[in-house]
Amino acid sequence: MTAHLQRGLGVALWRQVADGIRAGIANGLAGEAGRLPPEAELAQRFGVNRHTVRAAISALAHEGVLESQQGRGTYVRRRQRLVYPIGERTRFSAGLGDQARDTSSEMVGTAREPSTLWVATALGIETGKTVIRVESLGKADGVPVSRSTSWFDARLFDGIAELFSSTGSMTAALAGFGVRDYRRASTSIEARHAEEADTRELNLAPGAIVLVTRAVNCDLSGQPVQCSVTRFAADRVELSVEAPAPGSSG
Amino acid sequence: MTAHLQRGLGVALWRQVADGIRAGIANGLAGEAGRLPPEAELAQRFGVNRHTVRAAISALAHEGVLESQQGRGTYVRRRQRLVYPIGERTRFSAGLGDQARDTSSEMVGTAREPSTLWVATALGIETGKTVIRVESLGKADGVPVSRSTSWFDARLFDGIAELFSSTGSMTAALAGFGVRDYRRASTSIEARHAEEADTRELNLAPGAIVLVTRAVNCDLSGQPVQCSVTRFAADRVELSVEAPAPGSSG
DNA sequence: ATGAATTTGTCCGTATGTATG
DNA sequence: CCATACATACGGACAAATTCA
């Protein structure tokens, strides 16, 4: 479990240790009590000086992950990665509902624009036809975990941005347009380093990892109603692909 | 487009620039010819010294993303990611079959060991019962793309390692034990920075990203037959979740 | 073919950040 | 707190390879 740290690859040791502690917490490093091992033990475990561990803990405390108290120890404020399901019936709040006290999905912007090749293909319309773009931010317990960009056919969903903004729910917004249920048709997943926009919008450190999903959602008749690109903070969530019950089509 | 870089975050400027260049390439920074702007221009664009840009380019060249030639310029080595399907009927070679000339899956080790909590839970046996662990390496056109660790109930699949080793196919190996077909029951996906083992086994550069999937495969009756942890080189593959035809269970 | 312009490669020195003990 | 060693970042100057008028 002792991560192999290296000097000279552009990431300071204290930040590698910080990432290691964050990952370790998900694997029970802090135990049931949520209490981190003493700095000296962490220093030995990571093979670095205690000063370096202190710098790492200081950074994590500043991020809100840890909380140090003189004489008592260092305690974890957020436990483990959230598990985000990407099965065919994905709903943001429903999926995270039992893992966080407070989940929210708020709109942070919208626009009408001509569709790009990918969006048009996904929605089954001609390239360049007007689509509605909706930008939203998903939070769990106040911490940003996902940043989505969704597109809708402007001819069919005029006003959906306002509806989503007022309800804070994509399911409710789609229901307002007669879409009673929808399913995820396909999802592609890739991982990359955080760009400047990611560090700003998801509150990430440079060099952090972002999981990117590209999805198409269809109504019950199989007609595409929405496509989206979502960026997740990889250190805060893991994705879970839920399979349907055995015996269905392949 | 000018990313605003910051000092003192524990991430070296040259690494932030490297991430910026990598992101920029995806947005057409290198143009049609795949040629990067001159170092001096990049330096001005990122607001850093040319030496810092050179350090970033050097790192990307070491990763295999870029290639510099004195007097000529710096060029992008265009390699598009392989799409790896993780639907319910995933097969390594079948999934990649049309994207690479030559795909192979070779066994690189095996052992009998007591099952850990996760493996036992996944396979539906008691913790500590003996399981067979099979280590394998997946390649496409000679380049390693995935590194899997699989576990089987030793009571049911004694000798499967030898069968997999000789056939090079997990499907064939399972068929030898009467498993005519199998389906993926669940998959969790997370992303993290490459550890030392990853850089060695998948031939990655330090700081690269690894996609980790944890999966359970069941036979047609729903009985678990195999569980596995697979590490993918995130810069060589993207995962694709294939949905079944609409109308199945949810 | 020659020379100028362009672009990458290498050297110097110096200041600051990081890591150890 | 201190001292020491190494990594990072900057600035300038020049060499080497390529391109093109």
TrEMBL record, chains A, B:
A Pfam entry, by short name: UTRA
Presence of keyword Transcription regulation: yes
Keywords assigned: DNA-binding, Transcription, Transcription regulation
InterPro entries to which the protein is assigned, alphabetical: Bact_HTH_transcr_reg, Chorismate_lyase_/UTRA_dom_sf, CP_lyase_PhnF, Tscrpt_reg_HTH_GntR, UTRA, WH-like_DNA-bd_sf, WH_DNA-bd_sf
Superkingdom per UniProt: Bacteria
Residue intervals of the HTH gntR-type domain: 11-79
Annotated NCBIfam families: C_P_lyase_phnF
Classification via PANTHER family: MANNOSYL-D-GLYCERATE TRANSPORT/METABOLISM SYSTEM REPRESSOR MNGR-RELATED, MANNOSYL-D-GLYCERATE TRANSPORT_METABOLISM SYSTEM REPRESSOR MNGR-RELATED
Protein name: Phosphonate metabolism transcriptional regulator PhnF
Organism: Aquamicrobium soli
